[in-house]
């Protein structure tokens, strides 16, 4: 049934999904319910598909309210009459229901879900159902591989002039875990390419991108990242600015409010971002301990096997390292204090030995994989690159290439204006600090 209605702009936005609002009486006449799809057509041929919301108040009978995204997509004008044509829901919704019922999806079906996600065809309710389905039902290995490939295909990929490209990732859950800011200059100082894209804070006080931004700009375009890495071997940038594996960012927005981290999506999320930067050799840090994302060694070993096997299926050389995540690492938590701590370590100051050792162990694995160090000698080489000043020199080259001040000192880092000192009321020894208290 075709129906012409008068446009009314609604000054609300959804950050993507196109939404319209109909008066309930018009919706009943057209046999439309909330969250149904409808095609909007202008006389000039412009069209768009939108999600239906219903009201009895500010949209009169004969009007259609267009949210900002819908109004902009159509190029519509207030009081203009447009045609409404009921539309079927995307086929991908049926695949989401299939997953909720425990079925294994094909690569084609998973691609359809990610395509509709990128084209803003799925509502938050439908995407939450998809995340929930993978959380409850789990994902078979072939589904994870398909999801990873689909996420990689959802955005641009980097082109770095090297036959082998190195990368690292931590699954998270440990406060103060700023090893990336040590590993990147170590690996780059060894003459290897390491284009590191990092996230901002999600549940923690500081993401790696937030810490690096204290020292240098991190919001860079694809061609700028390629130029920096080809020039100085490495970078530490915010992945969200360049939209690599952009479908993953959309899924993360759905996962975070419920703190849902389905293993299949975790694997796909990490490996997609690694493949998007062109990585061939990857070290995965899996911290375990009370309050961390992974609590037991058995659970960590299972996750490590999945990373390695799925990486192999995708022709990625993945090595997983299980590390101590029982407590926060280093002596600082928060962007400015963590940035200052990194500058001090690279300058040769004897601070945060546990953090330095962990970073050198992870970097050491990459150095051994690359052939720069013999088996068992990678950690020692990593330490020497810090102690000898080469990593510090390289870090400052990266800072300059990203647009920061290469002469920055730890004392130049601006600290917060307000402080509060917490004093213990009695003497004693701290036995444990729960990471989750810093990650909420």
Strand order of the largest sheet: 1-5-2-4-3-6
Given as residue ranges, the uncertain stretches (5+ residues, pLDDT < 50) are none
- The portion of residues forming beta strands comes to 15-25%
The percentage helix is 40-55%
Major sheet: size, sense and barrel closure?
6 strands, mixed, barrel
Tally the helices: 16
Computed CA radius of gyration, to the nearest angstrom = 25 Å
Q: What is the CA–CA distance across the termini?
A: 50 Å
SSE pattern: EEHEEEHEHHHHEHEHHEHHEHEHHHH
Please write out the topology.
Layout: E1 3-9, E2 19-23, H1 24-29, E3 37-41, E4 47-55, E5 63-66, H2 68-74, E6 81-87, H3 92-100, H4 107-118, H5 124-137, H6 141-152, E7 166-170, H7 180-189, E8 194-198, H8 208-213, H9 222-232, E9 234-238, H10 246-255, H11 263-276, E10 281-288, H12 297-313, E11 317-324, H13 335-346, H14 353-370, H15 378-387, H16 390-401
Parallel strand pairs: 1-5, 2-4, 7-10, 8-9, 10-11
Antiparallel strand pairs: 1-6, 2-5, 3-4, 3-6
Helix pairs in contact: 3-4, 3-5, 4-6, 6-11, 7-14, 7-16, 9-16, 14-15
